[in-house]
């Protein structure tokens, strides 16, 4: 009991809180400083320099775009954490949350598709050539962006933060009941696992 109380007091101490804040700001800042130019370089190299873009490069370029869109929001979150309040309004907060969730789904689905493409390159090269000629992966990539945009909508019905609460914070979810929280968490888990399960099933049926 004494150790728990000491731990609680330590966690809530000003010095510990300041250290956590500095660590969070540093990590987010490094992610922004490294991630933005890195993803821009990847997209520029693929779409600006390559004349014949392979399927692998197409998927990596789209993955870089999804990561880039998420990283663009980091300065906003860093500033918000620093001042400990959200000053950009409820509408922009909802838009930002939607963009983040949608691009997370895009990333998961693209990584899944990339693993399938690598599997075909090793075990089914003729299938891959036929699919490449038919532009199957280009069509699937467009479908992934559309599907992710639809899946991202699921977060909005549960997001209704109290604007009268001071300081107002832009949090990812605001649930009215435990049932809503469980439903949303399960839905996210289902969406994020669907790509992996599809890949596993595909491998088992093809080997």
List the topology elements:
Blueprint lengths: L1 H11 L1 H36 L5 H17 L2 H10 L6 H34 L1 H9 L2 H16 L26 H29 L1
Mean pLDDT: 75
Regions with little confidence, pLDDT below 50 for 5+ residues: 1-11, 194-207
Q: What gyration radius follows from the Cα positions, in whole Å?
A: 21 Å
For the report, how would you describe the main beta sheet? Answer: none
Q: What's the number of extended β-strand segments?
A: 0
Assign a percent range to the helix content: over 70%
- Sequence of secondary-structure elements: HHHHHHHH
Strand content: under 5%
By DSSP (H or I, 4+ residues per run), the number of helices equals 8
Q: Which structural class fits the helix and strand makeup?
A: mainly alpha
Shape: elongated
Distance between termini? 55 Å
Question: How would you describe the overall organization of this protein?
Answer:
This protein has 207 residues and is an all-alpha fold. The chain is built from eight helices and no strands. The chain is elongated and about 60 Å long. The model is unreliable at 1-11 and 194-207 (pLDDT under 50).
Q: Tags for this entry?
A:
single chain; 8 helices; mainly alpha; 207 residues; disordered N terminus; 78% helix
In short:
The protein has 207 residues and is mainly α. It is 78% helix and 0% strand.
């Amino acid at each position: 009991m004494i150790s728990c109380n000491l731990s609680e007091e330590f966690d809530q101490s000003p010095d510990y809180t300041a250290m956590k804040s500095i660590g969070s700001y540093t990590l987010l800042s490094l992610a922004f400083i490294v991630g933005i130019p890195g993803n821009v370089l990847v997209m520029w190299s693929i779409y600006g320099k390559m004349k014949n873009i392979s399927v692998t490069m197409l998927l990596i370029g789209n993955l870089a775009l999804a990561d880039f869109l998420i990283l663009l929001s980091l300065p906003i979150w860093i500033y918000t954490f620093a001042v400990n309040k959200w000053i950009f309004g409820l509408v922009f907060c909802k838009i930002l949350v939607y963009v983040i969730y949608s691009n997370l789904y895009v990333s998961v689905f693209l990584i899944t598709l990339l693993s399938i493409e690598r599997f075909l390159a090793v075990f089914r090269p003729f299938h891959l050539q036929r699919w490449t000629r038919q532009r199957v992966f280009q069509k699937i990539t467009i479908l992934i962006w559309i599907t992710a945009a639809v899946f991202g909508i699921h977060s909005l019905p549960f997001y209704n933060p109290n604007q009268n609460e001071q300081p107002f914070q832009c949090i990812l979810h605001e649930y009215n009941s435990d049932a809503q929280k469980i439903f949303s968490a399960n839905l996210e888990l289902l969406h994020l696992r669907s790509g992996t399960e599809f890949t596993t099933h595909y491998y088992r049926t093809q080997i």
